[in-house]
Amino acid sequence: MKKTVSKTAAVLALVLLPAAAHAQFFVEGTFGAGRVNLDDFRALGFSGDDAAGTWSFGGGYMFSPYLGIEAGYRSFGDFEFTAPGPATLRADAKGVYVGPVFETYV
Fold first, then answer.
1. For 32-47, what is the mean pLDDT?
2. Rounded Cα distance, 74 and 7, in Å
């Protein structure tokens, strides 16, 4: 029984240690700009913002060089869109994200 347990532990150590050696936490941040093409709507009398700043902040954990998980917060900025009448639409796209990370090396 002891030999079986020690063999199992040795096999698990050989399999898990290389993966644990590559495991790491990471932090990420982005910033940029988003832009939409409103030319077709402007021809109909609509007006609005066509660009806004974007940013995100997050982090995650890589279990191996190929697989991990990440989470964070992302904001796509404020947009305002006005119809030919008195109607105005204001939108602020932002929220939390969670997802897997898949890395490939070619």
1. 80
2. 47
Longest dimension (CA), the chain: 82
- Torsion sign, CA atoms 13, 18, 19, 21: positive
Q: How far is CA 24 from CA 14, 18, 56, in A?
A: 19, 12, 20
pLDDT in tens, 59-102: 999 988 889 999 999 998 887 878 887 788 787 888 999 999 99
Q: Give the residue among 73, 54, 64, 61 at the shortest CA–CA distance from 27.
A: 61
Bridge partners (DSSP) of residue 19 are none
Is the C-alpha dihedral spanning 2, 8, 14, 16 positive or negative?
Answer: negative
